[in-house]
Amino acid sequence: xxxxxxxxxxxxxxxxxxxxxxxxxxxxxxxxxxxxxxxxxxxxxxxxxxxxxxxxxxxxxxxxxxxxxxxxxxxxxxxxxxxxxxxxxxxxxxxxxxxxxxxxxxxxxxxxxxxxxxxxxxxxxxxxxxxxxxxxxxxxxxxxxxxxxxxxxxxxxxxxxxxxxxxxxxxxxxxxxxxxxxxxxxxxxxxxxxxxxxxxxxxxxxxxxxxxxxxxxxxxxxxxxxxxxxxxxxxxxxxxxxxxxxxxxxxxxxxxxxxxxxxxxxxxxxxxxxxxxxxxxxxxxxxxxxxxxxxxxxxxxxxxxxxxxxxxxxxxxxxxxxxxxxxxxxxxxxxxxxxxxxxxxxxxxxxxxxxxxxxxxxxxxxxxxxxxxxxxxxxxxxxxxxxxxxxxxxxxxxxxxxxxxxxxxxxxxxxxxxxxxxxxxxxxxxxx
Length: 432
Prior knowledge:
Layout: H1 3-58, H2 62-69, H3 75-107, H4 114-122, H5 124-139, H6 143-167, H7 171-195, H8 207-241, H9 244-258, H10 262-276, H11 280-317, H12 325-350, H13 354-379, H14 381-407, H15 411-415, H16 421-431
C-alpha cells in the first residue's frame, strides 16, 4: 500500500471513528441536557472545563512534540521519556489546579460542589497520561488502534452515564464520576498498547530527549493554550456576566456547531504524522489537496444544520433549549473558517513551524476576549457566538497568509476545488 492509499484508508477509518464518537457524544449531550436541566448542564460543563484546561496548560505541547519526533528517534526512548515527563507534569498540575479552581469558584460565582471539584482535580494525571499515550500511538501511525481506544472511551462514558444518572439518579455528581472512571479505564488500555512498543534493553532516562520534547513542545504549547482558551474561554466569561442556565444554552449551541469539526479533526489527526514523514516539497503539494477536500463536506454540513437547527435542538435536547438556536446560526460561519485553520495548523506543526501556529491561536484568543467583554453584556450568548465567529475568521485568514508565505502555495490552491480532487473523493467514497 502506497502512502496516498494509506492516508486515504486511515482518514476513512478516522472519519468513521469520529462518526461513532459523534453519535455517542450526541447521546451523552441529550441525556445530560434532559436529566440535568439547563442549570445542571451548565454546572457539568464548568466542572469538565477543569481537566481540559489543566491538560491544555500543563501538556506543554507534548502531542505535537511526540508526533514530530516519532519518526526521528527510537520508539522506546520516546515512550520512556514521554512517560517520565508526563509524571513530572502531573505532580505540578495537581499541586496548582486545586487552589486555582477554588479561586475561580469565588471569582466567577460558580455554584459547584467542593467534593466534586476535588474529585475531578485529583484525576487530572490520568487525563495527561492518556493524552501522552494516544499521542504516541498517533505518532507511531497506529491510527486504527488509536481510533479503537477513542471509540472505547466514548462508549464507556455513555454506559457509565446511563448507569449513574439515569438508573441511580446521582445527578451532576454521577455524570462527573462517569467521565472520571471512563478516562481511568481507557488510560490503562492505552498504556497496554504503548508498552508493546518498548524494547526492555533500551529503557533509560535521557534528559536530552526530555529537553528536546520540551523545547519543541513549548513552541506549540502557547498555541495550544491560546487555541483551547479561544474555544472554551467564552464559557467562563458568560458565567461571569450571565446565569448558569445561559451557560447551558450556549454549550448546546457549541455542541451542535462543533459536530462539523469531526471531519477536519479526523483528517488533521492523520495528516499530522503523515506530513512529519514527508519531505517539504511533497508536503506542500499534498496539504492543499486535503484542505480543498475538507471544505466541501464542511460547507454542506453547515447548510444542513442551518436549515434544520431548531428541529435538531428540539429533537435532541428538548424545547427548553430553543434559546440556543440564534447563537448556533451565528457560530456556523466561524466553524466553517476554522475547519481550514485546523488542516493548515497540522501541516505547519508537522513541518517544524509550531511558533507560527501559536501566533494565529493568539490572534483568535485576543480577538475573542476583547469582543466577549464588549458583546456579552449587550447581546448575551449571541454576543459570545459573534465574538467566536469573528475570532475564528481572523485566525484562519492569518494562518493562510503565513502558510502561503512559508510554502508559496496560494489562497486559490488551498480553497478553490480542482479537477484532481474528484479522484480523492472517489477513493473516499469507495473506501466508505
